[in-house]
Amino acid sequence: MSSLLSIEGLSIEAGGQTLVSDVSFSVASGERLGLIGESGSGKSLTALAAIGLLPEGLRAGGSVLLGGKQVVGARDRDLVPLRGTTVATVFQEPLTALDPLMKIGRQVAEAVRRRARRDGQPSDETTITREVLDLLDQVALPQPERIAKSWPHEISGGQRQRAAIAMALACRPELLIADEPTTALDVTTQAEILDLLGRLVRERNMALLFISHDLPVVANAVDRVVVLRHGRIVEQGPVGTVFQQPSHDYTQSLVAAARSFDNALEIAP
Fold first, then answer.
1. What does the entry list under GO cellular component (predicted)?
2. Which run of H or of E encompasses 117?
């Protein structure tokens, strides 16, 4: 399988401080990869570097090939065609990812319209509206017509996250990056969003880069996992092997903590 995303020796620096060092991994077409580690381990920075959206003041080194194009050192205008075509991203807090001054339907419509024009397909208002409602239905939003007419603050956190997923899917990307997409949600809604992502990735044969600090969540979402600590990879491999027989002390501590938490829940009154 060809790699949609290939990272070799990635480093990220800010003000003389190294935040990510010598990170290398790849994501092939149709593959589901998890990137895990505690807060501050460099997970989200690595994902931002992969799509060329590092904040100002941060500098990337090494190589990042996205859809066969070099991201490191590239001009932003040269990367724009890759975003939405090769890759789309779902961020962890949809309330900040969505435009608070624009209704949900209009935000999804912008993504649909851009992709339709890109692919030379009809972009008249009727066609766009029909596809927007179809996308909202695909992500299991109740009453798509009502949601489309709602402002982001008028719907729940889980519904906002579903709307953000609909926007990402509107682009029909080959690779979906999900950066802590369930962190701000309650446990029941987390499970629904994870099931939804898993189903959509399978149905659309998309590759998935799933970023999380929650091991049980990752275990059910991906096939292979990369473990980051202090900006460095300490372990990687098939998710079953890494979680059942972790070789690095840090991974062992993560697995032990996750098991202790699960045991505590089982014995709680």
1. plasma membrane
2. helix 104-118
Kindly list the domain boundaries of the chain, sorted by start residue. Answer: 1-86+174-269, 97-172
The type of residue at 214 is D
Cα separation, 194 vs 155, whole angstroms: 19
Please check whether residue 81 is in contact with residue 114, taking contact to mean a CB–CB distance below 8 angstroms: no
Q: Extract the runs of DSSP E, i.e. beta strands, from the chain.
A: 3-14, 17-28, 32-36, 58-66, 69-70, 87-90, 175-179, 207-212, 224-229, 232-238
Q: Quick one: tokens of 21?
A: 């060092």
Q: What is the pTM of this model?
A: 0.88
* CA separation for the pair 148, 166 (Å, rounded): 11
* Residue (of 178, 172, 220, 174) closest to 47 by Cα position: 178
What average pLDDT does the structure give for the chain? 89
CB burial class (10 A; 0-12, 13-18, 19+) of residue 266? exposed
pLDDT tens readout for residues 44-97: 999 999 999 999 999 999 999 999 999 999 999 999 889 888 999 988 777 777
* Domain 1-86+174-269 top-level CATH class: alpha beta
